[in-house]
UniProtKB/TrEMBL annotation:
This is NACHT domain-containing protein. Residues 386-495 form the NACHT domain. Pfam families: DUF4559. PANTHER family: SLR5058 PROTEIN. It comes from the Eukaryota.
Length: 1342
């Protein structure tokens, strides 16, 4: 029953009316709260961004009317908060926008905090409040009625949200808002706290009309609720508790009014206080009697509810686990023995054989290098890797491995078979216990879905739960993913038909998931998939032991009366006799051949042709649907060679043609989501009902039911089957290459990679169509330094054409990369494309000697002519040593004639290569030349290139003097071999140059208009008495050596220097940095194995005795150092090998901002005294940032105002010493420290120093008047998280916190490198911010 309260608290009726009016104001404010708060968020977005660092005083001019009058003695602006422009030019724009939004152009600057504008929308609202009194109000719920009404009146935005005109000019009547504001004033400033009945009625009517405004408020549920509450108040229907709460809010007005200095009626204050006391007494009397009786019951009910909820949750978790395991055992882990008969499936553990899986290393430049083979699950899942990728070619067994993984996980959580630890690779199934749940997703079945959670819903939840339980099961899965470690398997990324590069993992916490994704390699080459998104990559090559695999398959195919071991040997012998040994590593192809062999159909498998293999598959599938036999003959010729001996294909050719057309149409559909999985409606547009039924009966197509009985999807039984049939359609309709494929390839970037398998089939069917298609694909193929996908595709297509005896082969290829694994085939293709070739690269590890010649020069290096014409091209005879194709080769050497390669633009020769004299003369279009040959290439003439852009010549190459000249197009030159007469004045567009000390530079400086941005020097000695290095330097930088004895000139366009094996003094390097600091852009200096001597004229005067000897002794080579100069006199040193010479470079440098850190780890300083002297000499240094391995005692530069230091570890005693030193500072200093709590290792046992031992130091600092501790924040490492991840750390506690998270973990660049360098053993980190004002001396911390 609802118990109402009597509002007649006072004996005088008019006083009771006044009391009701007070309550009504607060009810109205509540009703407006949601509407105003929502709209102010829109205003906040419209105002624009702010930097978050400027305070309001910085943005308000001095003087400003109503705020400050006297510029000299301004009480609003202080010395530290003066008017200025925002450094990022954001806050002034935001302030201007706020002013334009104010109806009277007079924002209440006193109320707002500009530094919070970017994060707090209510700080924007406060600009529209009355002039002052609201500085501490932080939300609409702390704002009184007057403040809320002022926002509505003063902010122009609300003109679009209210149906009436706001604040119209006289003589128009006052608007509702103005009248409501006047009601508030009358109530607050009443002299006698009395309101008549008529006045009260008008008050209620005005407030109710405002809340019912039809534009927006009428649809606002909060406003509607407030109107109901006003009616209850007017009719005395409020509950006692509701009335009490409203009265407390009304009393809060009094407190706020006192704080703001607003004049408030003493009678009103006294009357409200009296009403509050009366009402509180009534409420307490009733509540106390009830509370004692129900409190114990509440606790018991709460505990029972919690236990019930927890039991229900655990029961639901166990039920989900059981359903998933049952589902996986009925579907995922049952794999078909062969694509010949998909219905004949068997559990994966019965046929699983060891697979060859290698770890792949992704180099910084993107190159992927094969590493060690892995054998255990722990090699995949026991590291810190969250995003794991398994790549493999078609049919290599990616899904096979995934099924095995799912089976083992099921068996761990619900064992039904004995563990296989001792029987096979990946037998350490206990490793999978860490995954409470496994979610298997087939990406090819995820059409139009981009989020993994949605895929889980449709592929798992919809299949294992009834429809009425779908939503609750989905919520359960999301909750599990937040609290339990899960393994997500995404099978077939290359078959996912979405535009995005990767499925989204939104709503799945990073620290509770590991994702394994399988894919073909071409998909992982997508430039949208960044290397940083691949934690570890594995490469699957196929079956490790084919005989073991064959034995298991045969045990499933043959009855027990057969000798399985003997059958395995017979099958192996059969593969060898048919030259099919190469397919034995592919589970799919191997099983296909094996099943064919068992069915006595093996006589057709006569070679290594993929078309033959898939024809056998097609034949067997046709037999299933229609066993009628018919052969091709003279009257009915076979459409392709590989069909000529079939007996089940011809009777079904009509259906095959229709199905092939559908396969082609879907594969080249512009709607990528329907290219592999398509609806029945779409299929019926291409197939008749009988053709569709034939495809289903034969197994060419598979059909699946969706969540509705009418929702059916279809797909080809395997993507390669669809590609095979699409290729057959092209064979029959070659015009589609121009009509369809050409446009498709132009519309989709790198699409030629996706159709590479189909292209190989076309090579086996119709070489004429393949030649044409290769031409189209070749035009779209671009040069790639590391990716040779198209070349590998052409090689595979060439092999397929040869295997099918197709002629004439004229496959197009313009970019050649000759390697040891492709030389024999690629040479054949080169002979067809000598005039078409645009790039030729010879690998360093080719393993054969290569000679490059022209038509007028020959060599006798190759002994014994090898085949030059293509094996299948019967229109050519066997070549001789003088073959017109320009290639002679044997098993040990290759000789290439480039005289016909007139279109060659890039030539890269490395390793065992000889370039004969004049061999390169005819390459008029050459743009890029790289010669890194082991043998002498003598007297090469490089003067004939008309379009050359880059030259890279290394040791072993001998150039004709003055042969590098008059290159107007040359942009990059690198010469590290002996060369005399490099004339820099001949270059007009050079932007990069690399030379060694073996290059003699003519005394002609580089023309200044070259815009040179990169210079690299090797082996130069700037300390040598002959001054050769100095002269060369001046010439490279467009200067006269005679005019720069005490100054190091630099081109204004320079961006990057590299020094390798260079010797110089710290004085010379300091002079270089001083010049770079005057430039208006960033410049990098890389030093590789350089020697920097500290013993120069300037340093001699400061060194004595042992220090001088130390500098000479410590002038060791620095393995790598990176020095960067930037705007605002910023200098950054990254080094792992410090030396006195390196620190001497800093001595007296005019730098304002200095950053010192390591390259591979935190900086480990060995030469502290040298570093200290240099730091003390930096008279202009204002900001010092250091990443240090350990604490060292360093002096503070005289003008330092900001100190930022990250320590790998810092002990409490070291922190005390550091802070003692800083506390003695005599100037203002702002400090930031990030450090890990110390630990010790003794007897292989880690002993940690807890963060609590550092807290007393902070407490001691707090006691100092001149030291302000702004932050003392403790971070804890989360268990089982990736070491370098932002998510690996959580804030445990903030003893002192400035509330600023912009520089915290995951938000700050400083933290990126700091987290990378933190030791894995560290459990706690501390972040400190200090402000030292140094007003007086303070005793040291004890």
């Amino acid at each position: 029953m609802r118990m109402t309260a009597n509002t007649n608290i006072f004996t005088d009726k008019r006083t009771n009316n006044w009391f009701k009016a007070c309550i009504a104001l607060n009810v109205t404010k509540e009703g407006l709260a949601h509407f105003v708060d929502t709209e102010i968020t829109t205003v906040h977005n419209a105002v624009g961004r702010s930097c978050g660092n400027c305070c309001t005083e910085n943005l308000v001019a001095c003087p400003t009317k109503g705020i400050c009058k006297n510029t000299k003695n301004c009480i609003y602006h202080t010395q530290t908060k003066r008017p200025r422009q925002c450094p990022m030019k954001l806050c002034n724009l935001a302030a201007k926008s706020i002013t334009s939004q104010h109806r009277y152009n007079g924002p209440s600057w006193f109320n707002t905090k500009a530094e919070l504008w970017s994060t707090d929308h209510w700080q924007i609202a406060k600009c529209f409040f009355p002039p002052d009194g609201y500085i501490n109000v932080s939300s609409i719920y702390e704002t009184d009625f007057n403040g809320v009404i002022s926002v509505l009146l003063n902010c122009k935005h609300f003109e679009t949200c209210i149906s009436f005109t706001i604040a119209p000019k006289p003589p128009a009547p006052e608007c509702l808002l103005t009248r409501a504001r006047q009601i508030g004033r009358d109530i607050r400033h009443t002299p006698d706290c009395k309101v008549s009945d008529d006045e009260l009625h008008d008050f209620f009517q005005t407030l109710d009309t405002l809340l019912a405004d039809p534009k927006c408020l009428a649809q606002d549920p909060v406003a509607s609720s407030a109107r109901t509450k006003l009616l209850d108040l007017q009719n005395d229907c409020l509950t006692l508790t509701e009335l009490g709460e409203l009265l407390k809010e009304a009393n809060q007005i009094l407190i706020q009014a006192r704080e703001s200095g607003e004049r408030f009626s003493e009678n009103a204050e006294r009357t409200l206080t009296e009403a509050l006391n009366t009402l509180e007494a009534a409420i307490l009397a009733g509540e106390q009697r009830i509370e004692n009786k129900i409190q114990d019951g509440i606790e018991r009910v709460t505990q029972a509810v919690y236990e019930t909820v927890q039991e229900d949750y655990e029961r639901a978790v166990a039920d989900l686990l059981s359903r998933l395991i049952d589902h996986y055992r009925d579907s995922v882990i049952c794999v078909p023995l062969s694509t010949l008969n998909p219905s004949l499936d068997i559990r994966v553990q019965e046929i699983y054989a060891n697979q060859k899986i290698h770890k792949m290393k992704i180099e910084k430049d993107g190159k992927r290098v094969k590493q060690e083979q892995i054998y255990k699950y722990r090699d995949c899942f026991c590291g810190e890797f969250k995003r794991i990728y398994l790549q493999g070619e078609p049919g290599s067994g990616k899904s096979y491995f995934a099924a095995k993984l799912v089976h083992d996980w099921c068996n761990v959580h619900a064992p039904i078979v004995k563990s296989t630890n001792e029987q096979m690779m990946f037998g350490d199934v206990d490793t999978l216990q860490k995954f409470r749940f496994l979610f298997f997703i087939s990406l090819r079945d995820s059409r139009e879905q981009t989020h993994v959670t949605q895929m889980i819903k449709t592929q798992l939840i919809y299949k294992i739960y009834a429809e009425d339980a779908w939503e609750s099961a989905y919520k359960l899965v999301l909750k599990i993913m937040k609290n339990m470690m899960s393994l997500i398997i995404q099978d077939g990324l290359d078959e996912w038909p979405c535009k995005e590069a990767l499925p989204s993992m939104d709503r799945i916490p990073k620290d509770q998931r590991i994702v394994l994704t399988t894919s073909r390699p071409w998909k992982l080459a997508d430039e949208r998939i960044r290397n940083s998104q691949i934690d570890i990559l594995f490469d699957l090559e196929g079956i490790s032991d084919p005989e073991e695999f064959n034995e298991k398959i045969l045990r499933c195919l043959l009855d027990e009366s057969n000798d399985i071991k003997k059958s395995v040997k017979l099958f192996t012998k059969f593969l060898e006799s048919r030259n099919l040994k190469s397919i034995s590593s592919s589970p799919m192809l191997n099983t296909l051949v094996l099943c064919t062999w068992v069915d006595d159909r093996a006589e057709r498998l006569t070679g290594s042709s993929l078309c033959e293999l898939y024809t056998t598959l097609l034949e067997n599938l046709c037999k299933k649907a229609n066993p009628q036999i018919s052969y091709f003959d003279r009257n009915h010729t076979s459409p392709v060679n590989c069909f000529s001996r079939t007996m089940y294909v011809k009777p079904n050719m009509k259906h095959i043609d229709a199905i092939a057309k559908a396969a082609f149409t879907f594969l080249f559909s512009n709607e990528k989501e329907s290219s592999l999985v398509f609806s029945d409606i779409h299929l019926m547009a291409h197939l008749s009902p009988t053709a569709k039924q034939f495809a289903l009966n034969s197994g060419l197509l598979s059909q699946r039911k969706g969540k509705k009985c009418t929702d059916q999807t279809l797909s080809f039984v395997h993507k390669t089957i669809q590609e095979f049939l699409a290729a057959f359609h092209i064979n029959r309709n070659a015009d589609v290459i121009d009509d369809v494929i050409s446009g498709y390839l132009k519309r989709h970037d790198n699409a030629y990679r996706d159709i590479s398998q189909m292209f190989i089939f076309v090579c086996g069917f119709n070489i004429s169509a393949a030649n044409k298609l290769s031409s189209v694909m070749n035009k779209l193929n671009v040069y790639s330094k590391y990716g040779n996908y198209f070349q590998d595709c052409i090689i595979s297509g060439y092999k397929e054409a040869v295997a099918n005896e197709n002629t004439p082969i004229h496959l197009h290829l313009s970019h050649f990369y000759l390697r040891s694994d492709n030389a024999e085939d690629l040479i054949q293709i080169w002979t067809l494309n000598t005039s078409r070739a645009r790039s030729l690269k010879v690998d360093y590890c080719l393993g054969m000697h290569v000679t490059i010649r022209s038509q007028d020069a020959s060599s006798a290096d190759c002994h014994g002519p090898g085949p030059v014409a293509l094996p299948a091209r019967k229109d050519h005879g066997l070549p001789t040593l003088d073959d017109e194709e320009g290639v002679r080769w044997s098993k040990s050497c290759i000789e290439l004639d480039l005289s016909s390669s007139h279109n060659l633009e890039r030539l890269e020769l490395s390793g065992d290569v000889t370039v004969l004299k004049n061999a390169l003369v005819g390459l008029k279009k050459l743009k890029h030349l790289t010669l890194r040959c082991k043998y002498n290439c003598k007297a090469l003439d490089l003067s004939h290139f008309e379009q050359i852009e880059s030259i890279d010549i290394s040791n072993g190459v001998n150039l004709l003097p003055l042969s590098v000249n008059k290159y107007k197009t040359l942009k990059c030159i690198k010469i590290t071999t002996k060369y005399g007469g490099l004339d820099l004045s001949m270059f007009e567009n050079l932007n990069s140059i690399t030379i060694s000390n073996d290059v003699k530079v003519l005394p002609k400086p580089l023309l200044i208009h070259n815009k040179l941005s990169h210079i690299k020097l090797q082996g130069f000695d700037f300390n040598h008495v002959d001054n050769k290095a100095i002269h060369t330097w001046c010439l490279l930088n467009g200067a006269d050596p005679a005019q720069f004895a005490d100054y190091t000139p630099v081109l204004p366009s320079i961006e990057h220097f590299e020094f390798e094996g260079v010797t110089c003094s710290s004085t010379w390097l300091r002079s270089l940095l001083s010049t770079l600091l005057t430039l208006d852009h960033r410049v990098q200096c890389n030093l590789f194995f350089c020697i920097i001597t500290a013993l120069d004229r300037e340093m001699k005067s400061t060194l004595r005795g042992s220090d001088m000897l130390s500098c000479v002794k410590d002038a060791a080579r620095l393995s790598y150092t990176l020095i960067t100069t930037d705007l605002n006199n910023t200098c950054k040193f990254n080094t792992d090998d410090d030396s006195p010479g390196l620190w001497g470079t800093l001595h007296g440098l005019n730098v304002n901002n200095l950053i010192l850190q390591g390259v591979l780890n935190c900086l480990n300083v060995h030469h502290v005294s040298s570093m200290s002297r240099s730091l003390a000499s930096l008279s202009q240094l204002e900001t010092l940032t250091m990443h240090l391995s350990s604490y060292i005692d360093l002096p503070l530069p005289p003008c330092l105002t900001h100190l930022i230091v990250c320590y790998k570890t810092l002990s409490p005693s070291e922190l005390r010493h550091l802070l003692n030193k800083l506390s003695a500072c005599t100037r203002s200093l702002e400090c930031r420290f990030e450090f890990s709590c110390c630990y010790t290792i003794k007897n292989n046992t880690l002993t940690y120093i807890p963060p609590e031992e550092y807290i007393p130091i902070q407490q001691d600092l707090e006691a100092r008047e001149h030291v302000e501790v702004k932050r003392f924040r403790i971070y804890d490492r989360k268990p089982k998280t990736y070491t370098w991840s932002d998510d690996a750390w959580s804030i445990r506690d903030s003893v002192v916190d400035d509330g600023d998270n912009s520089d915290g973990i995951g938000e700050d660049k400083l933290y990126e490198s700091y987290l990378y360098w933190i030791d894995k053993s560290v459990l706690n980190c501390i972040s400190m911010r200090l402000q030292i004002n140094c007003s007086k001396e303070q005793a040291l911390i004890n």
